[in-house]
Amino acid sequence: DTEVTQTPKHLVMGMTNKKSLKCEQHMGHRAMYWYKQKAKKPPELMFVYSYEKLSINESVPSRFSPECPNSSLLNLHLHALQPEDSALYLCASSRLADYNEQFFGPGTRLTVL
Amino acid sequence: GDSVTQMEGPVTLSEEAFLTINCTYTATGYPSLFWYVQYPGEGLQLLLKATKADDKGSNKGFEATYRKETTSFHLEKGSVQVSDSAVYFCAMIIQGAQKLVFGQGTRLTINP
To answer: Three-class SS string for B1-54?
Structure first.
């Protein structure tokens, strides 16, 4: 199994909703990432987990809350989002956090109304 | 600081044309270099990589050579197909860092 899976593929939510994005990999990778990508832009790093511990938070607003329950799973909990948070959210994983190529999932297209 | 600069797009070519997408980098440490491709409505796929100077990465007819003297990693393909239409991102990661640094992306359209 050499892929990263993400669910759901699409999500529409209101500003008062609470929702979660899920990411899974079975490649034995010990680093996992959340990125946000706006249209016609490169991905922007949000969070890095290394060995299930949060190692980087790129000053992301607290309405985004990551969680890494185990080495294969990564969640992103969403609460009280703004319309400007609408974007493609990409999960990635790598063998280790340091100096390794990252493998991306297909993304969740999020629309905040 | 660390940065990656790609040629601005969009780039439009005819099928079977030769492709070059330029990429240069500025790095405070020793980087590994990557090309990612993003097809419409999808995530990023790793296209090829090079981890040291003079390495050549190749995949699906695409090639790029890590040139330390010119700090470049240009993407080339000898004969493009309509199915190569996508956005291409050059990226690097510095040894000891955890963060991929992306270029701005180059949108490629191939016409039949």
So the answer is: CCEEEECCCCEEEECCCCEEECEEEECCCCEEEEEEEECCCCCEEEEEEECCCC
DSSP A88: E
Query: Which residues in chain A are closer than 8 Å to B36, comparing Cβ atoms?
Result: 104
> Can you tell me whether residue B83 is helix, strand or coil?
helix
Euclidean distance between CA atoms A92 and A90, whole angstroms? 7
For residue A2, what pLDDT is reported?
Answer: 62
Check pLDDT > 70 for residue A47.
yes
A99:B32 CB<8 A: yes
Predicted local distance difference test score (pLDDT) of residue A97 = 74
Whether the bond between B10 and the residue before it is cis, its omega within 30 degrees of 0, is: yes
Cross-chain residue pair A101–B95, CB shorter than 8 Å: no
| Alpha carbons B23 and B65: distance in angstroms, whole number | 11
Inter-chain residue contact A107 with B49, CB threshold 8 Å: no
Chain A residues lying within 8 Å of B105, measured CB to CB: 40-42
Q: Which residue of B has its CA nearest to A89?
A: B43
Paired sense of beta strands B31-38 and A53-57, if any: unpaired
pLDDT of residue B95: 82
For residue A98, the chain B residue with the least C-alpha distance is: B98
- Over 80: is that where the pLDDT of A99 sits? no
Chain mean pLDDT for chain A: 94
